[in-house]
Amino acid sequence: MMLMRVVLLCLLFSILPPLPTVQASTLAHDTAQKRQALLVLINRLGYDDLAAMPELQKLSQQGAIALMNVNTGGKRTDSNAYVTMAAGAPATLEPVDVQAFNADEQFQDVPVTAVYAGLHGRRADHEVLLLSLPSILRKEERWNFKASAVSLGEALYRHGLRAAVLGSGDRADVLWRPATLFTSDETGRTPYGDVSSRLLARDPARPYGVRTDYDRLWSEYQALRGQASLVVFDLADLYRLAEYRHHLDETQWVALRQTVLQELDQFIGRLAAEQPSDRMLLIASPQVTVAAKSEAEWLSPVIAVGGGIGADSVLTSATTRREGIVSNLDVAPTLLDFLQVPKPQGMIGYPLQATSALEQQRLGALKAATIWTYSNRAVVLGVVGTLIGCGLLLAVLRLYRLQLGVNLGAIRALLWVALTMPLCLYLLPILCPSGLWEVAGGLWALYLLFAAIPFRILPFCQTLTGRLTWLCTWTIAVVVCDTWQGGLLAKRGLLSYDPIVGARYYGVGNEYMGVVVGAAALLYAMLLHSSRVRRRGLGASAVLGGLLLTAFFASPALGTNTGGALTMAATTGLCFAMQKRWRPLPTLGVLAASLCVGAGLLILLNQPSAPPSHIGAAAGQVLTGGFEEMARIFARKSDMFVRLLFSSIWPTVFLLFLSLFVYLLYRDQKRAWQTRYPEYRSVIGGMLTGAVVGLFTNDSGIVVLGLISLFALFPTMLIWLELDTGPMRTPKRSVSLRR
């Protein structure tokens, strides 16, 4: 009997602890039920349009505003923009794949409810029905992300919340109701709303003879009070006008657009007039304007009010870590976060947050600078690449005794320009250039400051070894220090990542990851050769430096580059092993151990408690999705790798040239230049082998390989030219570096 009482008492105590948790969960659910999120989609709205919309301006000052990247899983089309925003992951969808109806409508003279019952095997009541959902779900299987087009609505329904959708983008006989993607559950049903033509008023003066009936839309919204936790408005008059653009002359186009903007502004003013504390209003444009599209200005406005968003601020998110620039992937997670619903698996965006680190008044300048960088990147890098290619070609011709009327000093200068350009391009944003001539002048000034002048006046830089050590040290130090301070220069660099391209927004991109890895390996080779550095302990110091740089790349708060951590670790181990002239089998063992160390640092530094990053997000997806998610990540990386590798003939030409260089580097084991640089070839071999590791561990591997190889090709050419010999010949004479 006593034993029975003890058992019952233990059971009682085992039940008691969860009670507060259950109560807290119930309170949280009740709080979420009382909250309401409004998402207003104004397709083809531009940031510059806000100047003609006083209500929207007032609203942005009450909350926060930002520029939103409109990238998708494919082309920047309207259908891809809507589904990407709804899924919270890059996605693609054809316009014909979005077929949504009210339950009381007909589809091809058949009641929609009957069609829905035939597709899903269940009845439908007075709901909005996404008839094409089975087709959409089949297309999701080809996406490289484990996301669903209806993950937002389904997440709400699983937590007892309901959604509503209001608005129609129909034009003539073409049905266009994509906002249903935000509110449908996994069976294609939205409990409340209206997407039919009843929300459109006939107006022969408007595109396709219709316009949004804002009075009817307001009445429908008022009827939903207290029923839906999420209400999505799709205000499509700007979209219809954009599609009708080719029928209008410029005067009529401007007049109609101004009228549409005024009507939109008035409706948003009505929404903003009643803004309780438990409501969030989020306004976004899925796609950019016609003018912005023609100029490749792929940034649209997004405004958030309520939900704890501070007044007169700008938006940011863990996706971009950039003040004033966010991603369309962040819209769905923001709504779920406000409604206290966990983000579903496959949704890779993060909630929007307000920050006062940037003033709203500076957002226009940020937009102009970002677009300028995106528009001029190809031109600047094309010119720089041409100079680098000319220097390399002239050096090769000189080494083979082909005289083209170019003296040795000019060829050397071009080679030094090639080695200095990554550093100069990284520092260029300090000068704030606003035109191509200013870019040219800024790069020339930085080259003089970091190369030409120090090479003339500093005693340390009067030898080839000293000059290479100088450049490598500055390059590594500038990238690491800037990243440590938040990457202000990297975020504006012409050779760095681009927020409009959207492949990366923070940390160290693959371009400068390759630069740092190559510069670090070359620095090790030069220190081995320098007579001013003691050899004792240099190998251990190099391994420690490589370990620190590996941790730098692996850190979610700094480099945030998985491929960079693995490439740096592999290059460090290979350079050390090959410099020690170890046999192939031990060298392979060092390579495997180095990769394990890199992977271990990635796991150690990217725990769930670490700052949010795409590395942590990928790790979380793998932990929850297993091998299937690993296969998706591999497919994404492989697709990007193949696209870059075969984007033009130049990657193939580069690989052939690099193979020829390696052949010449290792063909003759007793070349005269090796007596002056006995350790150089071994370290360069480790660098190039590490570059091959980088080729396969990064989605833009060909870029990594090219930039690491820059620090192998051009120093070797300078060494060969220093002796004024061809790669197959005995030195003719030594050329003084003081000339």
TrEMBL record:
**Keyword terms:** Membrane, Signal, Transmembrane, Transmembrane helix
List the transmembrane segments: 378-397, 409-431, 443-461, 468-485, 505-525, 537-555, 561-578, 585-605, 644-666, 678-696, 702-723
From the UniProt annotation, give the residues forming the signal peptide: 1-24
Q: Which SUPFAM superfamilies match?
A: Alkaline phosphatase-like
Q: Cross-referenced InterPro entries, in alphabetical order?
A: Alkaline_phosphatase_core_sf
What is the name of this protein? Uncharacterized protein
**Which species is the source of this protein?**
Tumebacillus algifaecis
